[in-house]
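USER: For my understanding, would you kindly supply a protein sequence with its structure tokens?

ASSISTANT:
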Amino acid sequence: MGTEATRQATSPAVRTAVVWEALREALAERAAATGRDRLGIVDAGGGTGGFAVPLAELGHAVTVVDPSPDSLAALERRAAEAGVAVKGIQGDAADLRDLLEPSSADVVLCHSVLEYVEDPASALAAVAGVLMPGGLISVLAANPVATAIHRSLTGHFDEARQALADPSGRWGEQDPTPRRFGGEALAALLRQAGFTPRELRGVRIFADLVPGRLLDGEPGAARALIALEQAAADHPVLRDIATQLHLLAHR
């Protein structure tokens, strides 16, 4: 099974477990610091609500800003099925200051966004503008090292080498991802926008390499893989080969 098929076969719970673990801890810290259990959360580029709806189910006030009307329509249906309210606004991450009140959010999710926006620095500046002092940003971004590994596993060795050499981490002209970020580059970008990054974590270190049949055929395999991902997320070597890198940072 190729790595793309493996990624599709791996359950969403396995792919996002590390991020959810970090988010739950950070949200609990923010709630304790503010004395408010209901936090204001903005999911920039939140699409159909994979994070937004569960956060609303936890009792938070969630707004999704996304450029796709189709995604926002799917978000509305998903939220209705879950019995929660999630506000959807059509727009880009770079436009947050025009769409939302300044200093109005406790937390902003910026997952798989910086790879695609025209100017990542401007997008982060916009996020900073809508966060309260002490507010938190959660950034999830594609890692060029993992891309090189995945391209090599499918026999595309020249493209793997290109992904390592290219400043944007792209494997060629046909690469659908405009840019990728190593851990140091991601942290530097956040610092430039006025954020204080916390510990870097790796997401989907093993999940995108494990054949889906192993998860389907072994009782408890998904649970064990989640535990492995969580254990490896902050390993100083393994996190650097993760498909995605996750950083929490305070304003």
Notes: The beta strands are 40-44, 61-66, 86-90, 105-111, 131-142, 196-197, 201-203, 244-250. DSSP finds eleven helices and eight strands in the chain.
